[in-house]
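Thread title: Can someone regenerate the structure for this chain?

I was given the following input by a collaborator and told the matching structure tokens would be attached. They weren't. Posting the sequence so someone can regenerate them.
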Amino acid sequence: MPDVLETVEKVKGWLDELNLNYFVSQSGTEIMLPYKIDDKTFNVRIVVAPEWMQLFCQIMTANEIPQELVSVIHANLLLANFNLNEVTYSIDPEGNIYSENDLPMDSDLVTFKSELGAVVFGYQYFFEQLAPKIGGAVEKISKSKLGMT
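Best answer:
Regenerated them for you:
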């Protein structure tokens, strides 16, 4: 099994090869990747642990989610998980929503690129497809996050 810091170096090499900017945390086990779609920038984080690396970006914080729409949002996320290849929506214990993927430490560039693309696509898909379908405050937040106020 590869060492965590060796894997971080491998991931940095992939990001360099993909010509993507990134920042490494002081701990050396997390990478923050500012990702830009059109004029909007959002952060993809890569956390490297002993057996897995997790790629994720936050879509909405728990306090942004209207209580009356929680079940509708969750149902739409589950359906999207089923319908979309490679895209995984997740909710952490606090209720924040993410687009994320986990990869084993011995992944290669092709797999990494696919999983990273799926995380970015999941972020974009939520705001461009799911939020307008859900409507209400979620659609307003999505327009704001996409710069379409």
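The helical segments are 4-17, 70-83, 109-134, 136-145.
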